[in-house]
């Protein structure tokens, strides 16, 4: 059986998550926007209860959780919505980085075609932005929005989100972060990040179902949600932020996965760190100087490894490994292109085309990784 090590792309649904979802596919099929009768009320109660679980995972209020189809929609919704609503009030400057997920980069490029000015910050050797460069750009031309990935999906590096949030709070700058990869692998309490107004997340990165995510839209000091133009129009669902009939079964799955992730957070982080160290030691002993690690040892998401085998084509390597282990060449959303993340970190094309990503799950046991001794 293939050892699955591509958890940054997606994760298997936990049995408990599947069991929680099934009744809302079969018996409890009501539309939560309907009224009075039991099917509708049961669906509405389920949405409310499991929304609370998602809120608890990131430390926000349940009414700040807006369900979407996933982080890609959340990124689009927040960035485009903020740009449209505030352009006349706050100007047209957006600050982001060169190593964002394509859902952020392509959205920013779209806005550039509409007359917005986007600054793409450089990154260091581990893919992290320089807070001083960010401040310099913001002081030179105050932005309407700063959007930075919290933890990189290819190399696991963590951006200085707390420092950026503090700066944005002082300067009254709207701040968004794509937190897709860190949720469930890193403790988050948004009460500790007062300047962070928006967050994007996706259920299928933490053993929930595909097709469901959330945009966290924080309230201001008066208890009013931060305003933005909705991406979808046509109904009043999700406080008018996101029209469309709610996918109750997926929301239940997301909420159950969030509940489990929060309960097991400390244990899961420890397991991921131990497995990462164990696998790195195997590869070092087996390949010596024929293997290079691109990720930082510290200040990163545990369990995500960027590994280069100089002179070995990564596509062929992934293909040859496929019968034994499932790994990838990088982001699942840009499989046909060389990694823009590694390029921004200063690596040449030869290095990039010899690099694979391994991303682990807490469900993996150390003994499972011994398969690398025989490959």
Automatic annotation (TrEMBL):
What are its cofactors? Answer: pyridoxal 5'-phosphate
InterPro entries cross-referenced by the UniProt entry: Aminotrans_V_dom, Cysteine_dSase, PyrdxlP-dep_Trfase, PyrdxlP-dep_Trfase_major, PyrdxlP-dep_Trfase_small
Per UniProt, residues of the Aminotransferase class V domain are 4-372
Catalytic activity, reaction form: (sulfur carrier)-H + L-cysteine = (sulfur carrier)-SH + L-alanine
Q: Name one GO molecular function term.
A: iron-sulfur cluster binding
| UniProt keyword annotations, A-Z | Iron, Iron-sulfur, Metal-binding, Pyridoxal phosphate, Transferase
Gene3D superfamilies found in the cross-reference section: Aspartate Aminotransferase, domain 1 (3.90.1150.10), Type I PLP-dependent aspartate aminotransferase-like (Major domain) (3.40.640.10)
A Pfam family this protein belongs to? Aminotran_5
Q: Which family does it belong to?
A: Belongs to the class-V pyridoxal-phosphate-dependent aminotransferase family. NifS/IscS subfamily.
Task: Indicate what this protein is called per its UniProt record.
Answer: Cysteine desulfurase
């Amino acid at each position: 059986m293939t050892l699955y090590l591509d958890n940054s792309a997606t994760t298997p649904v936990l049995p408990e998550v599947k069991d929680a979802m099934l009744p809302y596919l079969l018996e409890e099929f009501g539309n939560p926007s309907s009224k009075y009768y039991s099917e509708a009320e049961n669906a509405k109660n389920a949405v409310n209860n499991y929304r609370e679980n998602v809120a608890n995972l990131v430390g926000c209020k349940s009414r700040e959780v807006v369900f979407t189809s996933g982080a890609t929609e959340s990124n689009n919704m927040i960035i485009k919505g903020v740009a449209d609503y505030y352009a006349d009030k706050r100007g047209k400057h957006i600050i982001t980085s060169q190593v964002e997920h394509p859902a952020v980069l392509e959205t920013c490029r779209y806005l550039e075609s509409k007359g917005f000015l986007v600054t793409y910050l450089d990154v260091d050797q581990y893919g992290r932005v320089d807070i001083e460069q960010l401040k310099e750009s913001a002081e030179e031309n105050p932005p309407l929005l700063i959007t930075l990935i919290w933890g990189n999906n290819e190399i696991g590096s963590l951006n200085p989100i707390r420092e950026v949030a503090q700066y944005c709070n002082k300067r009254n700058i709207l701040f968004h972060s794509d937190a897709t990869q860190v949720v469930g692998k890193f403790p988050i309490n948004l009460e500790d990040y007062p300047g962070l107004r928006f967050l994007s997340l996706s259920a299928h990165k933490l053993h929930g179902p595909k097709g469901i995510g959330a945009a966290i839209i924080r309230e201001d000091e008066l208890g009013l949600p931060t305003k933005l133009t909705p991406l979808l129009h046509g109904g009043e669902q999700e406080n008018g932020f996101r029209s469309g009939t709610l996918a109750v079964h997926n929301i239940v799955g997301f909420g159950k996965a969030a509940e489990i992730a929060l309960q097991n957070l400390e244990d899961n982080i420890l397991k991921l760190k131990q497995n990462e160290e164990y696998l790195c030691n195997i590869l070092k002993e087996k390949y010596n100087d024929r293997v290079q690690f691109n990720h930082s040892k510290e200040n990163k998401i545990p369990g995500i490894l960027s590994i280069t085998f100089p002179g070995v084509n990564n596509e062929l390597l992934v293909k040859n490994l496929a019968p034994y282990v499932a790994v990838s060449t990088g982001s699942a959303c840009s499989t046909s292109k060389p990694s823009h993340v590694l390029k921004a970190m200063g690596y040449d094309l030869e290095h990039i085309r010899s690099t694979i990503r391994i991303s682990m799950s807490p469900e993996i046991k150390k003994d499972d990784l011994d398969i690398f001794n025989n490959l």
